[in-house]
Design a protein that fits this description.
Elements: H1 3-28, H2 50-60, E1 67-71, H3 80-87, E2 91-95, H4 101-114, E3 119-124, H5 145-148, H6 152-160, H7 164-167, H8 170-173, H9 191-200, H10 204-211, H11 220-224, H12 230-249, E4 253-258, H13 263-266, H14 272-285, E5 288-290, H15 296-299, E6 304-306, E7 309-310, H16 312-322, E8 334-336, H17 341-362
Parallel strand pairs: 1-2, 1-3, 3-4, 4-5
Antiparallel strand pairs: 5-8, 6-7
Helix pairs in contact: 3-16, 4-12, 12-14
C-alpha cells in the first residue's frame, strides 16, 4: 500500500469515527441537550440538563407567562398554579439543581431582556452561601450558552463530541427504572418521594433515609461554629444588586424570600456569615419573607422529602403566608425589613444557643415526628 493510500484511508477512518461519535451523541442525547432545543420536551427529569431546557422554554414560550420563579432545587416544590394566588400572574418555575447566584442572575437577565415579564420571584435557599456557582460539579450544572452569552454553536459542537462512553453506557441504556419528568410549567416531580413516604412512613428505614449520615454531618457546627463565607456572600450580594438594578431598569417587580429549611440543615449555616448576608439581602430587596426560621415545622423531618428539600405542602404554606392568609404555626414566616432585621437576627442567636444547649444534653435536636401537630398533612401524595 502506498503512503498516499494509507493516508487517505487513515483520514477516512478518522472522519468515520467523528461521524460515529457525533451521530451516537445526537441520537442517544444522554443529557437531553438536543431534545431541549424546541423548549417543549417534557420527558426530561432532574438527571438531565434542565438548565438548558428551561432556558429554551423561556425563549420559545415567553407569551405564556407573566412571572418567573427563580431558585434552587428547593424551589422546585412551589406549584405555579398556587403561586398565581400571590398576584394573579401566570408563573413558570425556573428552579435549577444546586441553585447559585451565577445562574439566578443569568436567568433573570435573560428573562427581563427577552420577555414581557412583570415579575421575578427569587427564592434564596441559604445553601447559596457555600459557593457562588456550581459549574465544577459537571455538565448539567453549567450555565447554558443562551444565558451566558457564549457561543451557541460552540456549545452545540461540544455536546456532539461529549465523552462517548456516556452515550454507550449499557446500564443506562437498558435501565427500565421509572422516570419522573418535571411538569410542563417547570415544577419538580416529587412523585417518587411521596410514594416512598406512603410506603415507608413510620418505619426506621424511612427515618434513617432522612437523617442518617446527613444531619450528623452538620452537628459539629453546633460546637465549632460555621465557617466564614463572607467572600462568597459578597459575590452573591453583588449579583443580587445587579439583578435588582436590571429589574428596575425594565420595570419588572423583584421580590425575594428565604425558603423553608429543615432544622437539621439549618445548623450548617447559622452564624455570622448568614446573618450578615440576610441583613444585606434586606438592604437590597426591601421587605423579604423569611421561612428558614426556628419553628416546629422546621423541626419535623417528615415535612421534608430529604434533609434539604420541602414537600409541595410546605411550598403551599409559604405561598399562603406571603399572600396574607393566617398561619397556624408560630414563627413560620417572618416579614423582614430594615426596621426589624437586627432584632430578628438577635432572636436567631438566642434560639441557636437553645439548640446548642439541647444538643449538649441530648446529642440531638428537639426533632418532632409523625404524631406531632407540626406535621403538615400530605394532600398531594
Amino acid at each position: 500500500m502506498t503512503t498516499k493510500k494509507w493516508c487517505i484511508r487513515f483520514l477516512l477512518f478518522i472522519v468515520a469515527a467523528l461521524i460515529f461519535i457525533m451521530a451516537t451523541n445526537f441520537i442517544v442525547d444522554p443529557y437531553g441537550y438536543f431534545r431541549s432545543q424546541s423548549g417543549d420536551c417534557y420527558e426530561l427529569d432532574e438527571n438531565d440538563y434542565l438548565r438548558e431546557l428551561k432556558a429554551e422554554h423561556i425563549k420559545h414560550f415567553p407569551d405564556k407567562y407573566d412571572a418567573y420563579l427563580v431558585g434552587g432545587s428547593k424551589a422546585g416544590a412551589l406549584l405555579t398554579d398556587h403561586l398565581s394566588e400571590l398576584d394573579g400572574y401566570n408563573y413558570y418555575n425556573c428552579w435549577v439543581m444546586s441553585g447559585n447566584f451565577q445562574d439566578y442572575e443569568a436567568y433573570t437577565k435573560y428573562i427581563v431582556e427577552n420577555t414581557n415579564a412583570k415579575k421575578i420571584l427569587l427564592q434564596i435557599s441559604t445553601s447559596e452561601i457555600k459557593q457562588f456557582d456550581r459549574e465544577s460539579r459537571g455538565t448539567i450544572y453549567e450555565t447554558p450558552a443562551i444565558l451566558s452569552g457564549e457561543s451557541k454553536a460552540a456549545e452545540y459542537i461540544t455536546f456532539l463530541f461529549k465523552n462517548l462512553s456516556i452515550s454507550l453506557d449499557f446500564e443506562e441504556l437498558t435501565d427500565k427504572s421509572p422516570r419522573y419528568p418535571c411538569l410542563e410549567t417547570g415544577e419538580r416531580n416529587l412523585t417518587k418521594y411521596y410514594n416512598y413516604f406512603n410506603e415507608k412512613k413510620g418505619t426506621e428505614e424511612y427515618f434513617n433515609f432522612l437523617m442518617k449520615k446527613k444531619v450528623d454531618d452538620f452537628y459539629p457546627y453546633l460546637e465549632s461554629g460555621t465557617p466564614d463565607k463572607s467572600a462568597v456572600t459578597s459575590q452573591c450580594i453583588a449579583s443580587l444588586k445587579r439583578m435588582k438594578k436590571l429589574c428596575d431598569k425594565h420595570n419588572v417587580e423583584f421580590q425575594v424570600f428565604f425558603g423553608s429549611l429543615f432544622a437539621g440543615q439549618m445548623i450548617g449555616y447559622e452564624g455570622d456569615s448568614l446573618y450578615n448576608f440576610m441583613q444585606e439581602v434586606v438592604q437590597v430587596a426591601g421587605d423579604v419573607w423569611c421561612f428558614n426560621t426556628f419553628n416546629d415545622v422546621a423541626l419535623n423531618v417528615y415535612n421534608y422529602y430529604d434533609i434539604a428539600h420541602y414537600y409541595y405542602e410546605i411550598g403551599d404554606l409559604m405561598i399562603d403566608t406571603m399572600a396574607g392568609k393566617p398561619c397556624e404555626y408560630d414563627n413560620f414566616g417572618i416579614l423582614l425589613n430594615e426596621d426589624n432585621i437586627a432584632e430578628e437576627i438577635s432572636k436567631r442567636r438566642e434560639h441557636l444557643e437553645e439548640w446548642k444547649e439541647y444538643y449538649a444534653t441530648h446529642g440531638t435536636l428537639p426533632f418532632q415526628g409523625m404524631e406531632d401537630d407540626s406535621l403538615i398533612q400530605k394532600v398531594y401524595g
